[in-house]
Records
---
Amino acid sequence: MSDLFAASMAGQHTHLAAQAGVLHGFALPFAEALLAGIDAALAAAPLRHLVTPGGHVMQVAMSNCGGFGWVSDRRGYRYDRLDPQTGQPWLAFPEGFLQLAGKAAAAAGFAGYVPDACLINRYAPGTRLSLHQDRDEDDRVAPIVSVSLGLPATFLFGGLARGDKPVRVPLLHGDVVVWGGVDRMRFHGVLPVMPGRHPQLGAQRINLTFRKVR
Ligand code: SIN
Ligand code: FE2
């Protein structure tokens, strides 16, 4: 057993709030399956920079897999069963995706988690994600399971009000953040990703966020 795998088996967790925490290295045993699944999902639905209702082009490049995909345009934010760019359904969850999401949620205290959407966010160096709440899902209690791959990043984890000062959480390839229940609506974001090269992913960070939409 590799040291990294042993570390993830040992279950190093960082507590963030009553129902939120970081599972360090939890996704490492799934990394190969996740990277293959991301390639397949992006072949079906290429990364794109969405436009916000306010007319801004998002820095993060996005796509989706699973039953629903999060999309944004001048009309607003919403979940759609079809990719508006191709008119086709998003790729169904690739092998390993539901297993990882379910196991990570269970390890964080949320048994029986079955998400129906997975956003794929690609951060080039310099890209940030401003503080926001995930509020387009019907289910505001089921956890968000957020998987970091590639370049490291600093995650901002705030409170239930926009003005609450966020804590800074360093995230590495393979880390999984879970927040749900009373902490589901916390503001969060990502500081600009520092330049670098990751052995598997090169000069980028890819984040998967699993959500339960319906
Ligand atoms: C998100 O809030 O959707 C993504 C968070 C992250 O990239 O870590
Ligand atoms: Fe988010």
Note: Helices lie at 3-10, 31-44, 97-107.
---
Amino acid sequence: MRTQVAIIGGGPSGLLLSQLLNRAGIATVVLERTSREHVLSRIRAGVLEEGTVRMLHEAGCGERMMREGHPHHGCYLSTTEGRFRVDFAQSCGKEVMVYGQTEVTHDLYDAQDAIGATILHEVSDVALHDLDSDHPHVTFTKDGRAQRLDCDWIAGCDGFHGVSRKSIPQSVRQEFERVYPFGWLGILSHTKPAADELIYANHPLGFALASMRNDRLSRYYIQVPLTDKVEDWSDEAFWTEIRRRLPADVAGTMETGPSIEKSIAPLRSFVTEPMRWGRLFLVGDAAHIVPPTGAKGLNLAVSDVHYLYEALVEAAAGSMSGVEAYSGRALTRVWGAMRFSWWMTSILHRFPDQSAFDQKVQEAELHVLRDMPSARETMARNYVGQPF
Ligand code: FAS
Ligand code: PHB
């Protein structure tokens, strides 16, 4: 087999890159370890930055999002002293789109089917070869048979646990990591959302987030110790706890119901540099992980795709400037989002080793946000997404 761009991983990064490149006349093959059903079963991100909305339109996948998605012009932060709103529209004239990653992936698959893109599911033993040559190739197993895919470029869109990052020699890679001493227990339920916009709650019992997917599908999270297991939490226990942490007026009226998905996700900040080695590019979670507090994970994956898509179109026309600039361009935006996600996580969670001084500084940070329009503007500009 031969193609121009081999894409490892059929999550949002891989599917969006495949869609954009094929529309630009560049051939791709996507190699995905799991089944389409498994990819579509994942419940992950919920908030799309304006840049992500723009890229989905550019990929020809924006129609259902505009029909079923919900533009949000602000969000709430709450503490035991009450809640205040961060107004995106007033601060920076922008908005975010509340539309689940699951739906984005559905739309990408439909678009890929419509153009007859090549996506091979349930492949195994993926290995990358000759990355520092002009003729890289990929080997893998499909239906029990060993296969080889020759290509010009390889996009590693295979997430944090994929094979791509580890295919860059350890001596070349520099990794940066912060692991947080807590996780998020998330629940999805067919209930009316607790409020019209997202509520991020800083509470002595721990962080909580009230989010949504649509007006009959709510998404909630609470901070839990890393030792907790999802089976430790009945639906009843979850609802009782999140009601303790959300503002009283919201907690008193919110609708509860059976969970249709419940899981615990650990929180980490992680970056690997460089994001390119020879003919291999790292994209999305393969290169970086952010705590979901700032709603940046999926959106960072999309900005990586944007830079790589532009670079590969230029390369097809004979210019290598985009290829040479990819890692530096992507990492500049990655580190900006890394800082913001770390900052949001730091001001909203209770850290087990938090001193009384730390607690007072955290409260002061929230007061600055509450009382200073310029602080809220800075938060708004980062939340809606820095320009690509
Ligand atoms: P993905 O991990 O989505 O996709 C990688 C794909 O590669 C997968 O389909 C995998 O099966 C495949 N793969 C792996 N190894 C392979 C191999 N060797 N060969 C072939 N294929 C291989 N982000 C937010 O913005 N907000 C959130 O609330 C949020 N919540 C999250 C909750 C959880 C539990 C997790 C894990 C992540 C969450 N994220 C969130 C981040 C998430 O949305 C990612 O940023 C997003 O999925 C990144 O997309 P990809 O880079 O495509 O990686
Ligand atoms: C979600 O709805 O899943 C969500 C929203 C905002 C976040 C994290 C998760 O910061």
Note: DSSP finds twelve helices and 20 strands in the chain.
